[in-house]
Amino acid sequence: MAEFKTDIEIARAANKKPIAEIGASLGIPADALLPYGHDKAKVSGDFIKSVRDREDGKLVLVTAINPTPAGEGKTTTTVGLGDGLNRIGKKTAICIREASLGPCFGVKGGAAGGGYAQVVPMEDMNLHFTGDFHAITAAHNLLAAMIDNHIYWGNELEIDIRRVVWRRVVDMNDRALREIVLSLGGAANGFPREGGFDITVASEVMAILCLSTDINDLEERLGRIIVAYRRDKSPVYCRDLNAQGAMTVLLKDAIEPNLVQTLENNPAFVHGGPFANIAHGCNSIMATTTALKLADYVVTEAGFGADLGAEKFFDIKCRKAGLKPDVAVIVATVRALKMNGGVAREDLGTENVEAVAKGCANLGRHIENVRQFGVPSVVAINHFHSDTDAELEAIMDYARSMGSEAIVCRHWADGSAGIEDLAHRVVELAEAGASQFAPLYGDDVALFEKIETIAKRIYRAEEVIADKAIRDQLRAWEAAGYGDLPICMAKTQYSFTTDPLVRGAPTGHTVPIREVRISAGAGFIVVITGAIMTMPGLPRAPSAEVIRFNDEGLIEGLF
Amino acid sequence: MAEFKTDIEIARAANKKPIAEIGASLGIPADALLPYGHDKAKVSGDFIKSVRDREDGKLVLVTAINPTPAGEGKTTTTVGLGDGLNRIGKKTAICIREASLGPCFGVKGGAAGGGYAQVVPMEDMNLHFTGDFHAITAAHNLLAAMIDNHIYWGNELEIDIRRVVWRRVVDMNDRALREIVLSLGGAANGFPREGGFDITVASEVMAILCLSTDINDLEERLGRIIVAYRRDKSPVYCRDLNAQGAMTVLLKDAIEPNLVQTLENNPAFVHGGPFANIAHGCNSIMATTTALKLADYVVTEAGFGADLGAEKFFDIKCRKAGLKPDVAVIVATVRALKMNGGVAREDLGTENVEAVAKGCANLGRHIENVRQFGVPSVVAINHFHSDTDAELEAIMDYARSMGSEAIVCRHWADGSAGIEDLAHRVVELAEAGASQFAPLYGDDVALFEKIETIAKRIYRAEEVIADKAIRDQLRAWEAAGYGDLPICMAKTQYSFTTDPLVRGAPTGHTVPIREVRISAGAGFIVVITGAIMTMPGLPRAPSAEVIRFNDEGLIEGLF
């Protein structure tokens, strides 16, 4: 290998094409692109409508084994596979999520992909990008202000101020805002009550934006948000406050998908970024469905491992959007499988074929799970320079034993040239037309049974336990007409169980439900099985302390 | 007059040119423009540096009599005069402030100018525009999060949590956030303390952005912000938390001036928008100084009436930026002068020459005041259809009696054709080179004496009264090296006195100082003389309730 370059050095050296050229490669006329600088653009809603009747391209989901601190490189593989498919002559677009601003100031991070499989402009994507998250923040907080304003002016809707469930949001890691008392200061400022802030990606507005099929659907969904309850427990909706129109106006640009490019100048839609625990963790339906109209292949990803991310992609996003995924790619790394096999992080550099083989049980479980949705899959081994041939062989052998196939991918080091094999296999699977996609459960199954179905069939749990209050709540929602909603599980991403330390492929465990919430606008029931943090804090030495422009005018410390 | 059209109808019918053409008219190359859509762009910092050594054009300030509910049309006249100067062959750019998002959802409002003297795209300018205010909000709140995070992790700087003066901001009218208790919820969330939110335009970051000469100056000023005090009352600065670098990175695009156009396709810089009470109320120095390098004439405006807006423009912005204004235009209307003459709002439609003549005392005071700064002025009568000839004559007579001139301007109805006379007069005054601009007081005058100078010479007060604590504070700042800062008066805009109901040209009153604050980063001492609201509330029936997209896809209710 030649001189080692960091992600940001590679990104800065990118030979970007004007965004209009990228759009043209997908047949998007220049006047249907709203430019944000020379390398970012939004695709106009009118153009999106105009291609609605075209046939869809093939849809490829990139998912992964349970994440470990060793990293598995799901986004990197999504980007790499997109470039690889383009390389072998398939017109391909990728669809990924936008980054949240807040966490960038906590620990060094950011980046969309890595090595020679990245999306650019990296710096803008990790800062304000096209302003979508700011618009979502504003729309969310407008509704919050209107709720307290309604209470202040007489509370005609009889909102119980102890039961306002609509918090505020900020796109910042700010633990001091997790729990506050607001409306203090006397009669001029309202009625004191408890409240708090979540980070913007946890906003139901984010989930709604990502699940809306167009701007009318967006407005209707916003109207359906439950913001509070009365003393008699009856819900108060966003539409009762007439806030959905103004919120939609605030989101008029945010709902249009963003187009950028990979390092190899292939089109990338980067749009939306809901939490993958209390929300469904996928980029917007608008981006995915638009890309499918414009490209032969669309490669997209889902949050966390396949037990959470792929399940929600299939059961929530695909169900709502009517998407039929053709192939799933399950990303694994030697290092992450080693950790699943019990190796400590500091020992990852040492060859350990046995641990890899042991850790493969985690991979196997995900292969089986994806199969349950009727979607053919292939394993992508995201190659690290420390991997040994014997370790790689162990994974490939295991995949074969599962009736699958694992392919070594070197896109991080070599870009599209390193991932041609995977690209060919994906095309083979897609063009065979073998996918028989169906969600895991039907709309009409009882809510608790839906939870049990996910817990038993995907997590391989023995049972789901829940207090009477929770079961009553689920039945109450069924009675109120919400019985057809899918489930959005909020569970640790590190394990099939609710204990983050249990790696591998456990069985026979119990899934205790701590709480259930309804996202009536987004259209799912959130089932919380552990401590869910919707507002992160900053670490002792936040990266914000070292982020700055250096003397060459380059941003330091952000990556 | 033909069929009456609303501002928004006129704005929507605008025949906009591509923003690159507008830039080209000022000699800005296309690659120095960062487009935001097809009708908005930011001017690159590198280009701005490259024109730094050019000669400046002429600088025209548009200010006004004390505002009344009748409206005086300062922005409309700024836009109209810009178009008028272009019409008579002077290459002219206008510089105005950006609109705040929050108030748009309270009462119908927005718009930049009115009638046939507007800046477009109106809708974007009243929504997210190019995201500057969102970036300011994020930078401000990052610093806030870093303060509480520092306290959480051990408080090495020994911040007194009772004396954190850096609040949070949101670009929303949200009275419930005025006073809060934060960091509740136990040990994981920090140390409970009192805090609150202001609206973004009240952020010192906004004032700093508008007073910075370049990105390095911005970073230094951010570092100088005082965020809290220790128990021994010594200040803790933003730079003690190392936040200024990351804040600057967040503001990298926001500091670049925005270019848009008037209805007549003339260039308009719209950049920054600090409060005109606790801050100086002018668009950014970067926009004004850049425009001066590119145009023969630059027309800009200042907030409120000349007693506040022009005084701060001269004593803060011009002092800091080394600007030498050539001409001031004082906007008045028959209706507003009638109100100053004692007429109630409901009687404004009836001719009342006597009231107009009486109200002219307010105008006269502003003419005298502008003269004190050595700047020649002319009065623009912004014509309303209900004005009678006799009323207009009364103003013109009065102006002559003051050694000035008042010119009737019909730009609202007729665009640039209606304001040619004023344009010619402005050119005459500017080219005569009569301006002998000097700020009202020197840097080295004692702080209390600076306040007295403004109160006595501009407001014509008899005396300034202040508690010992306030005088001690001013002396303490002098001892700490802040004695050379200018004063930023926060006073009601409706009167020369501190009583909003006293119209006309009062004398002999007292100016009581309620509080003094330091904006060490922006570089001024804020002197508060009444109740200052830094977080507005929404009205009983906020316009947000009726804002929506109608069936034609047009935004309703925002204007």
UniProtKB/TrEMBL annotation, chains A, B:
Q: Which UniProt keywords apply?
A: ATP-binding, Ligase, Nucleotide-binding, One-carbon metabolism
What Enzyme Commission number(s) apply to this enzyme?
A: 6.3.4.3
Residues annotated to bind ATP: 68-75
Name the pathway it acts in: One-carbon metabolism; tetrahydrofolate interconversion
Task: Give any single GO term for biological process.
Answer: tetrahydrofolate interconversion
Recorded catalytic activity of this chain's protein: (6S)-5,6,7,8-tetrahydrofolate + formate + ATP = (6R)-10-formyltetrahydrofolate + ADP + phosphate
Q: State the source organism's domain of life.
A: Bacteria
GO molecular function terms attached to this record: ATP binding; formate-tetrahydrofolate ligase activity
The first-level EC class reads ligase
Report the Pfam families cross-referenced here.
Answer: FTHFS (PF01268)
Gene3D superfamilies from the xrefs?
Domain 2, N(10)-formyltetrahydrofolate synthetase, Formyltetrahydrofolate synthetase, domain 3, P-loop containing nucleotide triphosphate hydrolases
Q: Which family does it belong to?
A: Belongs to the formate--tetrahydrofolate ligase family.
Designated name of the protein: Formate--tetrahydrofolate ligase
